[in-house]
Amino acid sequence: MKTFKRGGIHPKENKISSAYPIEVIPPPAIVYIPLSQHAGMPAIPVVNKNDKVKTGQLIAKAQGFISADIHSSVSGIVTNIQDIADAAGYLKKAIIIKTEGDEWLENIERGNTLVKNISLSQTEIIEKIKDSGIVGLGGAAFPTHIKLTPPKGKIAEILIINGAECEPYLTSDHRLMIEKGDEIMVGITILLKALNVEKAIIGIEANKQDAINILTSISEKYENIEVHTLKVKYPQGSEKQLIKALTGREVPSQKLPVDVGCVVQNIGTTFAVYEAVQKNKPLIERVVTVSGSSIKKPSNFLVRIGTPVSFLIEKAGGLPENTGKIISGGTMMGKSFLNIEMPVVKGMSGVTVLDEKETLRMKALNCIRCGKCVKVCPMGLAPYLLATISEHSGFEKAEKEKIMDCMECGSCSYICPSGRPLLDYIRVGKIKTGEIIRKRN
Fold first, then answer.
1. How many Å apart are CA 116 and CA 412, to the nearest integer?
2. Positions of E strands within 47-191
3. I need a surface site. Which of 68, 223, 254, 441 has the fewest CB within 10 A?
């Protein structure tokens, strides 16, 4: 069974929603669609207040090199374009649409008919993905068309499909692999053509044996697609760790996967690519896991982008009385919601509800120099040192100690016997160090 060698932890998996099929929930009465729900520059609105829009219609155009188009997830009336708070509490411009019926653009093919024949050329595929607003659905939300266009001098050799889903509680990719295996395989074939690459490897953690069996069976029809079983280990789904586990190649500090000939795409992204290229469907909905130990109905919902999180929680049985924290994503790398009226965005793979006991932090004690945080760091860093440097504003030293290599996986905070908020300090240090680097450059 394959895995990365350096660091890693084994948090409780809590995949309590894995047995629940994807459930399509209806559009809400109002959607809030942020203009900045991807890496890079916010999109620019191409609609105005009181405009009528259809489901799938372009409502905001990408600006700059790194950006993504945004489409309406419902049909209805644009009631406003205004600032709303994102999950972290920062104000960002959003298009607000009041839902009226569900009238889709005529060129979008709806239904579950599998379309295997790929008629578009390499260039046309990349352009279609760009025009559909596809971004990485694993959380980073990096525009997919850019990933499929390696910089000059860089050559992709292997396409890696990330089916690890190592975060506790999250099961949206797991359900997609079970229910949409054929579509995912066609999506992989599309990505191979876009990259002009001959080989693809799907990496799936061993706790998803049903998904492994299904995709392995389907892959027998495809000579250039392999399915590999990964050891259950966090953060197995991180790009650099996944590449190391599946290929043995190591991405150097401050380098990209393509520097070692690899391009990594998430399962959800691969399915979105299939729908965009084969069905003319832009990224207007995604699968979101709603889970937690006290949730009455753990679920995997197919939900429209811009749907308030409160709408999902209500569909999952309502907010438990003992709720202590609601997280966007999983418990390791996710961030707490400011409030549950925040909208679902492209990169939101889950909503995790924790009770009060689960959210209690132990009192932070002095570092005992046990070295556990160093041992579990998958990037080979010294988290205790980076946290201390950041706490005392030593940001130039933090850069020398490679703080920017931190992937913010949270393994260090998880393992610390003194309960020190190592990741909190390191995140602050990364922000400040990044500002210094940008000013210098």
1. 45
2. 52-53, 58-61, 70-71, 76-85, 91-99, 158-163
3. 441
DSSP 183-231: HHHHHHHHHHHHHT-SEEEEEEETT-HHHHHHHHHHHTT-TTEEEEEE-
For β-strands 262-266 and 199-205, DSSP reports them as unpaired
The reply to whether 152 and 262 lie within a common domain is yes
Looking up tokens 């829009």 gives 53
Sign of dihedral through CA atoms 11, 12, 14, 15? positive
CATH number for the domain spanning 164: value is: 3.40.50.11540
Q: Do 95 and 120 lie in a common domain?
A: no
Q: Which domain holds residue 196?
A: 1-22+107-360
Assess whether 320 and 387 both reside in one domain: no
Cβ-contact 35, 314 below 8 angstroms: no
Q: Are residues 284 and 409 in the same domain?
A: no
Assess whether 13 and 29 both reside in one domain. Answer: no
- Is residue 352 in some structural domain? yes
Q: Tens of pLDDT along the chain (441 residues)? A: 999 999 999 999 999 999 999 999 999 999 999 999 999 999 999 999 999 999 999 999 999 899 999 999 999 999 999 999 887 778 899 999 999 999 999 999 999 999 999 999 999 999 999 999 999 998 889 999 999 999 888 999 999 999 999 999 999 999 999 999 999 999 999 999 999 999 999 999 999 999 999 999 999 999 999 999 999 999 999 999 999 999 999 999 889 999 999 999 999 999 999 999 999 999 999 999 999 999 999 999 999 999 999 999 999 999 999 999 999 999 999 989 988 999 999 999 999 999 999 999 899 999 999 999 999 999 999 999 999 999 999 998 999 999 999 999 999 999 999 999 999 999 999 999 999 999 988
The three-state secondary structure class of 24 is strand
Q: Is the residue at 130 inside a domain?
A: yes
Intra-chain end-to-end CA distance of the chain, in Å: 43
Same domain, 12 and 67: no
Burial 100-124 (b: 16+ CB within 10 A, else e): eeeebbeebeeeeeeeeebebeeee
3-class DSSP string for 311-376: HHHHHCCCCCCCEEEEEECCCCCCEECCCCCCECCCCCCEEEEEEHHHHCCCCCCCCCCCCHHHHH
Please identify which residue in the block is written with the tokens 């418990």: 331
Residues 147 and 225 in one domain: yes
- Residue 366 maps to a domain: no
Please report, for the domain that includes residue 46, its CATH number: 2.40.50.100
Answer whether 426's CB lies under 8 Å from 386's CB: yes
